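Task card 7
Instruction: Convert sequence to structure tokens.
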Amino acid sequence: MKNLVEFIGKSLADNPEQVVVESQDKGHETVYTMYVAPEDMGRLIGKGGRIAKAIRTVVKASAIKSGVQVHVEIDERK
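Output:
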């Protein structure tokens, strides 16, 4: 699942080398945080959050097939 989130992030970003994905288990759910360059935040969130919502939908659909629950967050790399 982490590879999927990373693939999508790197495909959309202008600076794919700066995309880093970290996973963290929180009870029955896995949270994937995608860190991107500040100039890529707008590209990955999209107008009104449409792209971010689409990323979450694709990842959740894949997770359902695997029988797990996931959440994707997008954050600026520091």
